[in-house]
Amino acid sequence: MQIGAHVDQADPIGEAQARNAPLVQFFLGSPQSFKGPVFEHPGGAEGLRAEAEAAGVDLYVHAPYIINVATTNNRVRIPSRKLLQQHVDAAASIGAKGLIVHGGHVDKAGEDPELLAKGFDNWRKAIEATDLKVPLLIENTAGGDHAMTRHLDRIARVWEAISTAEQADRVGFCLDTCHAHAGGNALETVVADVVAITGRIDLVHANDSRDDFGSGADRHANFGAGRIDPELLAAVVREAGAPVVCETPGPVDAHLADFAWLRERL
């Protein structure tokens, strides 16, 4: 099983080699800004792509958290779509295996079925409007009453909505263990539950959680230092059978300890 980590983008190949990792994930720019992608690698996109290919390291890009293509607020949705395309293009330019994006939410929708329906359909429109040059991996999220991908029933409605889009086959799923636990999804069955909806799990964000089950808190912890049962966490990773990104707190030594912890239980 391939296990890597989320790292700084300035020298991702060096970060991968320091961890003896076959893959890494990183941001291209600020995760909280609508400004476009930024390449900090000295060789730019072409240099990073060449270095990754030479080293045999797979690259994954995490889209900015601020992207929310589901919202009915035009001032957020329209720039979100633009930023999503920019990051798809940037990820493609470095040969990334995928772009991970959060599911977003519908503001003040509550249980209003009409507003929620618009949010799900906005996902369909976003997929149809985006040139998916790399796989787009939608990630489950930890909190938010109006979130599109916190609860399984909402994830199912996102997938139902996008299933009619021409590029539906370019959309995959990223399962985050901390988010599933904090979001109130039973880890005992979450892999089977997700696969029954999406048909696939393309990437796992393996993280322990600082907070209790169902807390809604997106607070990652190193393995064994959080509230998720260790054997259950390992079982999710094992059952998912996908490449793993540890988004646990660094630095290198902490990630190496997390890798060893996980491999021992796998």
Would you mind describing this structure in some detail?
- The chain has helices at residues 12-18, 44-55, 74-93, 113-129, 152-162, 177-183, 190-198, 230-240, 252-265, and strands at residues 3-6, 23-26, 58-62, 98-102, 136-139, 171-176, 203-206, 208-209, 220-221, 244-246.
- It is an alpha/beta fold.
- The chain has a domain at 62-246: TIM Barrel (Alpha-Beta Barrel).
- It has an 8-stranded parallel β-barrel, surrounded by 6 helices. The protein has a two-stranded antiparallel ribbon with strand order 8-9.
- The longest helix has 20 residues, at 74-93.
- 47% of the residues are buried.
- The mean pLDDT is 96.
> What's the total count of β strands?
10
Largest sheet: 8 strands, parallel, barrel
- Bulk shape: globular
Mean pLDDT: 96
Strand content: 5-15%
Q: For this structure, what is the CATH class of one domain?
A: Alpha Beta
| Low-pLDDT runs | none
Could you tell me the CATH topology label of one domain: TIM Barrel
What is the correct CATH architecture of one domain? Answer: Alpha-Beta Barrel
Question: Can you count the helices?
Answer: 9
Structural class computed from helices and strand pairing: alpha/beta
Strand order of the largest sheet: 1-2-3-4-5-6-7-10
**Span between N and C termini?**
9 Å
Assembly form of the protein: single chain
Radius of gyration: 17 Å
Let me know the CATH homologous superfamily of one domain.
Divalent-metal-dependent TIM barrel enzymes
The ordered string of helix (H) and strand (E) elements is EHEHEHEHEHEHHEEEHEH
Portion in helices: 40-55%
